[in-house]
Specification:
homodimer, 225 residues, mainly alpha, three-stranded antiparallel β-sheet, 9 helices, DNA-binding
DNA sequence: ATATTGAAAATTGTCGACAATTTGTGGCGA
DNA sequence: TCGCCACAAATTGTCGACAATTTTCAATAT
């Protein structure tokens, strides 16, 4: 079950970057907090230069924001920011689904169907639920299936870590399991039918549903204050 | 006629970054060529550190590609790459138009209509043609009108320089002036009618037309070998 | 008490030198 | 002649120190 990218750290900056990204996404480094180069360099036992480079890369992912001569801060998570993110996902992953319907090979589509049915078995036998990992795997395959290198890079290296950060920190593990699963099935069917228009429409609706689901959840959370 | 972002260089890396970006986009630094840190640092009379940081930022824009312990190269321009770029533009700017129809203020829409009519006068009186600058300005305003900060950053800081690089180096100044102008008019009308669906559809078709136009041009160029 | 100024402390930006890795080159052996 | 290994040259990665800028805070004046 090899699936998504094993980006392996070759350089010291890579390690720092991956570690910081993990800590930021999982909230170990708080959202909105300041990133002190000195502090981090002592914490990770590396030079400031590698911390700087790591911070620069985190900025490319939109995980931190930098101001010249002032410093870098982890992005702050706002409901509006999350909605903006899902609008972008809708546009890009909709296009990815359209392209996947055109460019995925027959065997890739078969593998994708196989993934869904294995996930179906897991859910049915209640050995596990249809959780985030499965959802991610599904979306990754379609993104890769688009065969559009720029699009892939944008989503995999850029947006998805941000999305994960929101999910983890705002507690969006949530249900929406069986419905999401059905939506996935319909999307795959459109792809295997080589119907780009429908694949795009279904993917966009799928992401819209997620977005709405999250929006209501956010609203109810906010009222608990 | 103040319009798009005056990003002003505050630090030395900023200057290096802007300069290198300009030289890459305009082909002064050839596509596909290697970027030697040492060489550039002597050329710009700055330390290697600032060149490194500039290169990192260029990588964020997808203008250069880096491999660890090997170096950075300017991206190579391929017809496929350009088509991929336009697919992403179609998705993102389509969404931008949709959001602009929802979020632009009435005065912003009026300004946009004003821009179009002034451009119309220029074209009609043949004092100038409807060239790239005008087209860029139009697209910029709609992108900004989306009010989606992440989307704006992605397009303005990321994609547009790449698009410009392709346009400049593959000589896509081209005609398509009056038709593009009409398309712009229809898009603005949809926005002023607060019709997000139509605005998105028209923007996507507008970009598809550009893409097809460029594709045929590329094909004819390629046959000249 | 509040606002302003100015110096001190802390943080980021830049630099040159050293370490690690890759690349180029020549010689050796099959 | 071809391939392989070792050594040298060049390039990138990392480091600590210094410069420039921002922030802090206390002293002063209104």
């Amino acid at each position: 079950m090899m699936s998504f990218f094993d980006e392996q750290a070759v350089t010291s900056s890579d390690k720092a970057f991956f570690r910081m990204r993990k800590e930021i996404v999982e909230g170990e480094i708080a959202a909105g907090s300041k990133l002190s180069e000195m502090e981090l360099s002592t914490k990770y036992e590396v030079s400031r230069a590698v911390v700087r480079e790591a911070i620069n890369r985190l900025e490319s992912c939109h995980l931190v924001e930098r101001k010249a001569n002032v410093g870098a801060r982890v992005v702050t998570l706002t409901p509006e920011g999350l909605m903006e993110l899902y609008q972008i996902r809708e546009a890009l992953e909709g296009m990815a689904a359209r392209l996947a319907a055109q460019h995925m090979t027959d065997t890739e589509i078969q593998d994708l169907e196989g993934l869904l049915s294995s996930q179906f078995d897991e859910v049915k036998n209640q050995h596990s639920y249809y959780q985030e990992a499965g959802d991610l795997d599904f979306h990754y395959r379609i993104i890769l299936g688009s065969k559009n290198a720029s699009l892939i890079s944008m989503l995999v290296n850029g947006l998805y870590h941000l999305v994960r950060m929101y999910r983890v920190q705002l507690g969006m593990a949530g249900p929406r399991v069986t419905t999401a699963f059905d939506e996935h099935k319909h999307i795959v069917r459109a792809i295997s039918n080589r119907d780009p228009e429908l694949a795009e429409i279904l993917m966009r609706r799928h992401i819209q549903y997620s977005k709405n689901n999250i929006a209501t959840k956010l609203a109810s959370n906010q009222s608990h204050f």
